[in-house]
TrEMBL record:
It comes from the Bacteria. Coiled coil: none annotated. Keywords: ATP-binding, Biotin, Ligase, Nucleotide-binding. The keyword ATP-binding applies. It catalyses: biotin + L-lysyl-[protein] + ATP = N(6)-biotinyl-L-lysyl-[protein] + AMP + diphosphate + H(+). The keyword Nucleotide-binding applies. This is biotin--[biotin carboxyl-carrier protein] ligase. One of its GO terms (cellular component) is cytoplasm. The chain holds residues 42 to 286 of 296 of the full protein. It comes from Kinneretia aquatilis.
């Protein structure tokens, strides 16, 4: 993955990744044991040594519009593990996505994607943090305040018992690299169809902050469309948590 993103970034001043992208090196950090994982709004991300795949990919990426990058990355990961092309017509995928940054398996949360940008000289660096449960975690109940569901976590072993962390990383890394390569040009618009197929909340009653309604999918800018009593409203990821009501 590192080699692929590096070669993209080193296209220099002509790079789609920014005029001075060649000044900074992409880096990939994989934690053998993550002790202080976090999700959005400082929520804890739990992991156990040997049972979790947790890594951060940092790379220079000057994007005018970040909308939907976490959705696209989530889609790329899900597609790498469960290609839509292998599903029968009308077959529901087991791996689904919950806006804006969750990966779910069979109705329970399997993983999360956290995208942040940090200043790096005159540019910004994007850090894409991914946490995936590979095996069941040692019994931590999900009792944190603000947790959406207390249904327990899913693990990829339920999907394919032969998967281990390195195998999963090797499978999802090229898919992430392709997603990152193409995102500056195509944005989330290129993923809307793939996302819709895995959209966990599509047609479901949801609440996001004070807003309540029926989820109607995600627009090309990555915003969630919610049908409310006041009409169709767009919700951008920001700090809002989405609840299935
Ligand atoms: P939520 O999933 O509660 O709606 P969110 O999508 O904003 O919130 P994040 O902030 O990305 O979630 O992730 C943090 C939350 O994920 C925690 O509050 C906890 O509910 C859940 N969580 C923490 N560790 C794990 C894990 N290993 N597997 C699945 N879910 C986890």
């Amino acid at each position: 993955l590192l080699e692929r993103v590096r070669s993209q970034a080193q296209q220099g001043t002509e790079s789609r990744y920014g005029r001075r992208a060649h000044d900074m090196q992409p880096c990939l950090l994989v934690a053998e044991h993550q002790t202080h994982g976090r999700g959005r709004q400082g929520r804890a991300w739990l992991s156990s040594p040997g049972a979790s795949l947790t890594f951060s990919l940092g790379l220079p990426l000057d994007l005018a519009d970040w909308g939907g990058l976490s959705l696209a990355i989530g889609c790329a990961i899900a597609e790498a593990l469960e290609p839509s092309s292998c599903l029968a017509a009308g077959q529901r995928p087991r791996l689904e996505l919950k806006w804006p940054n969750d990966l779910w398996l069979d109705g329970r949360k399997l993983g999360g994607i956290l995208i942040e940008t940090v200043p790096a000289g005159e540019q910004r660096m994007v850090i894409i943090g991914v946490g995936l449960n590979i095996q069941a975690l040692a019994g931590e109940p999900d009792t944190q305040p603000g947790a959406t569901f207390n249904t327990g976590f899913a693990s990829l072993s339920e999907f394919d018992a032969t998967l281990d962390g390195p195998t999963v990383l090797a499978r999802i890394a090229p898919a992430m690299a392709r997603c990152l390569r193409d995102f500056p040009q195509g944005g989330f618009a290129a993923w809307t169809e793939a996302y819709a197929r895995r959209d966990l909340t599509l047609g479901q009653p949801v609440s996001a902050g004070a807003l309540e309604g029926i989820a109607r999918g995600v627009a090309a800018d990555g915003s969630l469309q919610v049908d409310t009593a006041q009409g169709l409203q767009s919700v951008s990821a920001g700090e809002v948590s989405l609840r299935l009501s």
